[in-house]
Structures are given as C-alpha cells and as structure tokens.
Specification:
heterodimer; A: alpha+beta; Immunoglobulin-like; 3 helices; 20% helix; B: 558 residues; alpha+beta
Chain lengths: 218, 558
C-alpha cells in the first residue's frame, strides 16, 4: 500500500505541473496541479489607467477552521479580513491552507478586459500553499474576497481588499460589517425574558404610581 | 328615559338589519325548508363566472445541449455511449472517472472539471489488465443553503420548477467554484443531488478519503460492502461515531479502506445523526462490479442514470445499465439550513428542535430531480428486444411500491446478493424497503408479458404521496421507460395528451394554477367571487358596529 501511495505522489507531481488551457466555453488563464489551481494571475500587464506599478504588496493569508474560532457561530476563516493597497499596486498573495480540505482566495471586481470574469482566483489543497499576483487599477474601490466552496463564505471565509480609501464595506465581513439577512433565527426574541422584563416594568410603574398618589394625599 | 330612547331604537334597527342581511345560503337547513314551505324555493341566481388564471411563461422543456455532451465519444480509449435523453453528463468527467484523474491528459482533466486527485488509479496487482488500487476522494457540499446577503438560497439547485429545498451531498472533488460561473448562483455542473453512484471492481484495494468541506461533522458508512471494522492504522472504519470512531470534523479528512470480496449493488451514507444527515442527501449507490480482465469501471456516475461506460460483466448480459436512486425531502427538516447562518443555531434546529418521529415527506426525487425534470434526465431509454439492467435504491423514509407501465420486472439481486435463478420473481409492482437495493432486469421483447411494445410507459411508486410534489400532481418521482423512436432529436419524449406548460412553472406547484385549466377553458377553472355574499357581509359588519355603539351608549347612560 505504501508503494502505491509513493507512486501516486510521484504521478501527481510529475503530472503537467503548469498547464495553460482554456476550459469549455470560458477563457480564463488557468493553471492546475496537485496542490491547487490559479486563475488569471497577472504580474506584468498594466491596467489601462496605470502608467506604472505604484507599489508592491505581498500578503501571506492563512485559511482554515482555526481562524473561525474567534468568530462565534462561524466555521471557516482567514487570518486577514481586510487588505489595503495603493492604486496601481502589484499584489502578491500566498494562500496557506491549514485545513485538510480545499480552500480558495478569490477576488472579484477587476476589469474584465484584463481579468476574464473580472476575477483572480487561488485554490489550494489541504496542507499546501500557493502564491500568485495581480495588478489593481487606479480607481479607489473595495474588492470582494472570499472562498467560493459551498457555504465557506457564508460560514466565515470572507474578506475585502481596499484600493486607496476603497468604496465602502461589503456586508458580513467578519469583524468589520454586519449581515444584511440575519435570518429568522437571529430575529426571534426571547419571549420568556421579554415577559419577565415587562412584568418587572409593570410592577415598578404601579409602585411608583401608588407612592406618588400617597404623597399627594399627605 | 328620553335619553336612552334613541340608542334603544338604533339597537333594534341594527338587530333587524343583521337578520335581513344575513346570507340565505348560511341559513340552517330546517329554516331553509320552512321558508320554502311558506314562500316556495328562492329565485335562480347564477353562480359567479369562472376566472381566468394567468399562467406564467413556462421554462424550456429541454434546454439546449450547448456543450454537446449527448453524442457518443471515444476519449483516451474510453468508449462513452451516446446519451439519448435531453440532459447528459460531461463525457470528459466520465473518461477521467474510468481512467483515473492521474492517468488522463491535462486537457481531459481540465475539461472534466475534476482535481488531479479526485479518483486515482494505481497498480494492476492481479495482472488482468485493469487497475486494482483505487483512491477516491469525496467532499461534502451544501445545496440551497442560507446566504446572509441574498434572499435566495446558494448555490441553487432545483428539484423541479421553484422547488429548492436545502440539501447536503457527497460530491466528487471538482476544482474551482461551486457555482456555474461568476454571475450565476446556480450550482456548477456535477454538484447536485444525489451523491454520485460509485463503482469499483470486486477485489480492488479501495481507499475513500472523506474531505469534510462542510460545517458539520460527518462520516462514511459503507452499507452492505465488505469492509473491516478497523482500518490498517487501527482507526474505526465503519463510520459510526458512538461505536467505531470520532466523526470527521469540519476542515478535516479521514481515509476509509475496503477490499470487497463480493460483487453487488451496495450503498454508502453518513452515519452521524443519520435520521437527519442521511435524509439531507448524504447517501449514494456503491456498486461492486464482478471481476473481469481489462475491466475499467466508471468510478463516478454523477447524478446516476444511464451508465455510459458500463463494466465488462454488465455488457456480457445487458445492452444498457441504469442507476436509479430514490430520495425524498421533508420540507420541515430541509428548510432549517435556509433560516440563518449561525452554525450553532442550525445544529440545534436540525438535531434537537426537529423531531424525526414526526417526519413526513413532501418532495420525492429520482436521481435528484422531480417530475417534470425527471423527463429531462431520469428516463430509462430502451429499444425493442433489449435487456436492461436497473440498479435501484430506496433512500427515502418510506417503502416504495415501484410499478412499471407496459413492462414486468424480474428481480435478479436483492441488496447486492443474487437470487437463485429458480427463485427470481417477475412482477409489475416490486417493494423496496428503506435502504434496500434491487437489481432489476427489463426485457423489451414484445411478448405480452415482459413488454407490450414501444411507447412512453411510466414507472412510479404506486403509493399516493410520491407521485406528487407537496401534494400537487403530477409531481414526485414519476418517470418513464421511453423507446428511442418516441424521442425527439433533442431527447424530449413525444408525449401525447395535455400540454406540460403548467408543470414547467413554479406557480403550478405553489397551488396557484387550476389542475385542468387547459383541458377546456372555463370548465374546471376557479370560480370568481360571489359579489352578493360580499355585499351582505359588508352590511352585517356595518349593523354589528352600529349595534355595539348603541349598546355602549345604553350601558353608559341607561
């Protein structure tokens, strides 16, 4: 069995490590290998509105269940919830996956003429790391960052990248912004507590009334 | 006395008004008879006329096969049969499932959508020309879950028009996003109900790694398959948290092992809080094919249905093979993942607030879809004089009395164990208990017993619930045995009789469309409102208010 696994590991790593391909009807620049996938990496083509790269940023983002432990009710998370860069920056992201399952770092809202679908995508298998970079345009804007595996964003894997001062905040970024749809469970009051509070308030009012009335009679 | 006079008269007037405006159709029967005795029956008043129900634009019955997946393919030595019905699987995913994601070219892998380690195939240990070391990876995906940003569920997956219950599935390991593209909320191709049918060969060394990508603990239980209680490392291998092992926690993985000695149609499912997790969709067919030389089996049959690259043993005896997986949904359970985002609240709601002893199913699916979507992809397509193998599993809460129109079924195996030839029974209704598997042989020779000749012949549960969607019929898991000559070019069956337009609208299953509205306009439509009744009710409300006001005045001053 051990021989079988060594053979598999060998096969994975000898298997077309960098493949440039166009899949189906989409035309993303994609590379896929045993430790994950990258889409639309760009480290040399400037956006139309940039004459040169203004700054270089490098982020090491850790992803996994442990980064949700400080967010009650969440299950997955990143160690960084907000990124700040200057206009026309080159941004290099290293995603370190500390779980044993896939995770992604996906950024939306980039210009489509340069990034098909307007996105930059890093996907990393459990226990691996992967680095790629992209260049942001000059406008001050906030970009959505998330893991697009089913329910990972909803359960905590959400962040935002601000170019300059950004253009506001996204909803539901852990530690930064609240939910638009909290769901009926969060809207449901504790009726028993409300009843106790109401009775207490009633009692206090009656006592106050009686005391005030007694004062007047004196 | 003078001051109370006016209110008293007004009260009397109000009582009289109430009596006069009281609708005659509400009079007690003896009163009606007495009145008829005195005055004869009342005059004729026509019932309110029919109202026309606006039918929303129906969905396309058979959306265009844009990627051209239905035709026959030969991909890297894998022969993939043409798929005759409207919707079909990605042939590159089939090819990668047969050869192994480690043995196909980069181009095939990319088109398959699978990751490099989704299903790897290693050494041919018995030297018979096919791989015997198989490593499968499964993830856990939620469909139609809650979103804190949108009122619609995500990623979306519909059983039928407008029916999107929350679901959990075991999913093959696909690279990339869970939605079909960046603008869409729809689940990507292959991410769907049911959990995929998995095929291995008898005697294979099989490893299945469960990568728990979901936010709750899960396990894998290989129901009916020959597997040891402990894996080689001593860890539990049966998937039961209170008997063999800790469940696989979110973000973690565990590898299950087996080397099955017997072939047969088996089952797999999560065994954590199974009254909830199995019913949410964490269950699939597990098929152990008989060992044959050069027998490359199609490891994943995504969405079940026709096996487009059947094994050698099956091809020896049958022209076609279908996997049929029945599941059902209790809306009361499945909506609980759509109501909030706090994992703790969802956990409580599903495992403590929900009471499985009070469960009753509302939606019924065959291979992950309900009628009318079953006619896109869950048909059994045949030609005359063929032998067809059906592998059927009942993953629902209740038993199924499976009935075929125009054909009888011969049960060859029960729960993956062959019945002796003399003990095989042939029937037009077969019973499937929950979790039970039957291997069924259909014979389409037109002999008056096995088959009555070409047509569009339904097959369905003969119980009354499962042929509806939440009580609205036709719905549930109604599907059909369809002869190829009855299929259009696009794979849609040439049905006769009534239009299917209402069935392809969400409004029909939301009870907004009269069931026979299109048969004969007006005849069975909804009746309009009775204006006379409404006028009388309005008058009664007025007189009642007047009476109360008068009584109040009387009470105060009288």
């Amino acid at each position: 069995m051990r021989g079988f696994f060594s053979a598999l590991v060998f096969l994975w790593f000898s298997f077309a490590p960098w493949v440039q391909a166009a899949t189906g009807h989409s035309h993303h620049r994609m590379s896929l290998d045993a430790n994950g996938a990258t889409m639309n990496a760009n480290d040399d083509v400037l956006p139309r509105d940039c004459s040169r790269i203004q700054a270089e940023h490098s982020f090491e983002v850790h992803a996994g269940h442990r980064y949700a432990r400080d967010v009650p009710g969440a299950m997955f998370g990143y160690n960084i919830a907000e990124f700040h860069v200057e206009p026309c920056s080159q941004v290099s992201v290293t995603l370190v996956n500390e779980d044993e399952v896939r995770h992604q770092w996906m950024l939306h809202g980039l210009p489509r003429y340069l990034y098909p679908g307007g996105m930059f995508h890093l996907e990393v298998s459990g226990g691996h790391r992967r680095t790629a970079s992209f260049i942001v345009p000059s406008d001050e804007k906030t970009y959505l960052v998330h893991c697009d595996m089913s329910q990972h964003m909803e359960k905590g894997m959400k962040a935002q990248l601000k170019v300059g001062r950004g253009s506001g905040d996204f909803w539901s970024v852990p530690g930064i912004s609240g939910d638009l749809e909290a769901g009926p469970a969060a809207r449901r009051p504790e009726w028993r507590r409300f009843a106790l509070e109401f009775l207490a308030a009633l009692l206090v009012s009656l006592l106050a009334w009686r005391w005030a009335g007694a004062g007047r009679r004196r | 006395m003078r001051r109370t006079g006016a209110p008293a008269w007004i009260a009397l007037l109000a009582v009289l008004g109430l009596l006069v405006s009281f609708p005659p159709q509400w009079y007690p029967r003896p009163v009606k008879l007495q009145l008829a005795d005195w005055f004869g029956p009342p005059d004729y008043h026509a019932n309110p006329p029919s109202v026309e129900t606006e039918l929303p634009a129906p969905e396309a019955y058979c959306p265009e096969d844009v990627p051209d997946w239905r035709q026959a393919y030969e991909i890297e030595g894998v022969s993939i049969a043409a798929a005759p019905q409207c919707r079909s699987d990605n042939p590159w995913t089939i090819a990668a499932s047969v050869r192994g994601t480690n043995n196909v070219s980069a181009d095939v892998l990319m088109k398959s959508g699978l990751t490099t380690d989704a299903v790897t195939k290693g050494e041919d240990t018995d030297g018979d020309g096919d791989p015997d070391e198989i490593h499968i990876r499964l993830e856990v995906a939620e469909l139609n879950g809650f979103s804190p940003e949108t009122p619609t569920p995500v990623p979306r997956y519909a059983l039928a028009p407008g029916i999107e219950p929350g679901l959990w599935v075991f999913a093959p390991k696909f690279a990339g996003m869970s939605t079909e593209n960046f603008e869409s909320m729809k689940a990507r191709d292959g991410l769907r109900l049911p959990s995929p049918a998995i095929r291995v060969e008898q005697g294979d060394h099989v490893l299945i790694t469960l990568e728990n990508t979901h936010y709750m603990p899960h396990t894998l239980h290989l129901h009916g398959s020959d597997h040891p209680f402990r894996a080689i490392g001593g860890e539990g291998n049966d998937g039961v948290p209170f008997a063999s092992e800790m469940p696989v926690m979110p973000g973690q993985s565990r590898t299950y092992e087996l080397q099955p000695r017997n072939a047969g149609t088996k089952f797999y499912h999560c065994h954590v809080q199974p009254q909830v997790h199995v019913m949410m969709g964490l269950q699939g067919l597990f098929i152990i094919e008989e060992n044959r030389p050069d027998n490359w089996v199609q490891t994943f049959n995504i969405g079940d249905g026709e096996v487009r690259a059947p094994s050698r043993a099956v091809r020896e005896n049958y022209e076609r093979e279908y996997d049929l997986h029945y599941t059902d949904v209790d809306a009361e359970l499945n909506r609980r993942i759509q109501q909030g985002n706090d994992v703790r609240s969802i956990t409580r709601s599903m495992h403590r607030d929900y009471d499985a002893t009070e469960a009753s199913s509302d939606y019924f699916a065959l291979n992950g879809v309900s009628f009318p979507y079953t006619f896109r992809e869950s048909l059994v397509v045949v030609r005359p004089d063929e032998r067809i193998k059906l592998r059927v599993v009942n993953g629902g809460r209740d038993g199924i009395a499976l009935h075929t129109h125009g054909h009888t079924m011969t049960v060859t195996d029960r729960d993956g164990i062959p019945s002796p030839t003399g003990a095989r029974i042939t029937r037009d209704v077969v019973w499937l208990a929950t979790a039970q598997r039957l291997d069924i042989q259909l014979n389409t020779a037109n002999d008056g017993q096995g088959a009555y000749g070409p047509g569009i012949w339904l097959f369905h549960d003969h119980g009354s619930k499962a042929i509806t969607s939440d009580g609205i019929g036709p719905g549930g898991h109604i599907s059909a045995i369809v002869y190829e000559e009855f299929l259009g070019k696009d794979g849609w069956p040439a049905t006769q009789g009534v239009s299917w337009d209402p069935y392809f609208t969400a409004a029909y299953y939301q009870r907004k469309v009269p069931v026979w509205d299109r048969y004969a306009p007006g005849l069975f439509s909804d009746a309009g409102e009775d204006r006379g009744l409404n006028i009388r009710l309005g008058l009664m409300a007025m007189f009642l208010a007047l009476l109360l006001a008068a009584l109040y005045r009387l009470g105060k001053h009288g």
